[in-house]
Design goal:
Elements lengths: L16 H18 L2 H11 L25 H17 L7 E5 L2 H4 L2 H17 L7 H15 L3 E6 L6 E6 L4 E5 L5 E10 L1 H8 L6 H8 L7 E9 L15 E7 L4 E8 L4 E2 L15 H4 L1 H22 L3 E2 L4 H6 L21 E2 L10 H14 L2 H4 L9 H40 L15 E5 L2 H6 L1 H19 L4 H8 L4 H12 L9 H41 L7
Antiparallel strand pairs: 1-12, 2-3, 2-9, 4-5, 5-6, 6-7, 7-8, 10-11
Length: 564
Amino acid sequence: MNAPVRLSASIGSEGSALAKQIFARYEEMKSDRNGRAQELDAVARIYRPQRQGFSSSGEKRDAWNLHELFNSTTLVAAGNLTSSLYSTLCNPANDWFQATTLDKDLAEWHSVKEWLDIVSRRMLASFSPAVSNFYSSAVTWLADVPILGTGFMISDEGRGRKKLIDTCISPADAVFSVDADGMADELIVERWLNPVQAARYYGPEALPPKLRERAASGKTDGRTRFLQAMQPNDDFTPGRLGTKGMPFVSTHVSEEGQAVVRQGGMREQPFAVPRWDVDGSNPWGRGLGYLTLASGRKLQAMSRDNLTAGALAARPPIGTTGTRAVKEGMKMAPGAFLHGAVSHQGQQLMRPIITSNGLPISADMERQAKEEVENGWHAQLLTLVGRTGLGNLEVIERMEERLRLQAPYLGRTQTEGLSVLLERRFGLLFRAGQFPPPPKEMAGQPLDMRFTSVAALAQRAQEGVAAARLLEDTYKLAGSQSDPSAAAEIWDNVDTDRALGVLAEARGAPTVMLRSPEAVAARREQRAQAAAQQQQMAMAQQLAATGKDAASAMAQMMPPEGGM
């Protein structure tokens, strides 16, 4: 049963009721992960060996970092998909999000548009390597999600060289729960620290007495378990100062002494837990690692058996008489003389034991298992290396097909992951005074973050394709009319300004490429004035020419001067 989260009044005091409650809550939430522990270890063992240890304690988790694989296809296929997700969701080379508002007309106002542009640029800068470690952590984070099904990222203010810290937590080191809407709202992270590490991280005065004494003596042997619980604050009171005025509370507790060693509040949820896919009542997600687990196991077993058979064929076991002289004289090497292999009577004393006449598994069978793994990770759509003869249309279609297959999962990653981090990042920067005050037109308007990454653009690509085809068809239909007025009437049905806006948004063109509606109206007004002036000049020239011709005609009609 989840007891209400209350604030602690004392730091470092042993026997804290809040500390005991958090440890009990951790074990309760851990039951969900335990239900998937064997499955997660099986997936990690084949696709992500460094993340194993779901069935073991934190102190023994390093023993799971073993590579008992016989074929690297599983690692390469999962790595390729991870690289694809990283490049399509949050590639640092692209502006992968843009601050905007749900009111599209309001977003076009000059003052609002200018402020949103400042917010976008400064938020993007906050993710740069000079300020944050987000991009390095995002690689690991976006590998956990499709492989293990669940990923954890914590975003907070920096305590060292980085001003902002984005930390990817191993799913084997954390547990979480969801609210009534199915969104993650509670995260508890497990850490194992020796006394010196604990004193440096929390401060000696925050530790319970015995742990503080060991830290003062410089003890680095023996590790203590600490938990950090990030939970909704049940003591939250809007408008209050301090931690009680924060919607979320973060509490660090020590298992030794059952003490609270740090506590603080946060105005936004500080963690993001995206999941690849969710089924049933268990909140832990399932990814492609689970879906391709059978194929991965089969491939590893086939590769192992073929390698074993090949080794036995190349170096078969030797049956001997068992005499000491034969054993001492054995030298199994190509071209070497093996004395004692034949007796004085010509009898063969040693004989290879042939276990098979060929490989037990054909190369075609192993290749088929490899293709099963690669297809499960969309390898055929991810790579075009070594392929020739592909036209631009085919390349585009392959890209669209890949993103169409991944679209549901990319959307979940954006909603449960990147959106939560962006909300947290905006709050941290706004309170730090990194943004100018919003214009008065934004009063009461929610700020929205629109994703502009390759994945987001692909999701909107169909609108661009539809707009381009409509313009192409309209051009053909108008061109088939012999009467110019009929062609103009056809174009009257299409708002070309809005069509161009749809194309620009679908193609991901920078907003600076398009002029504002005011600038477009001004240019059209100038063009209309210039056309009017040219028309007036042409009319004046025509009138002048007409007057000149009339004067010449009159002169010809008049009799010569002096004549009767």
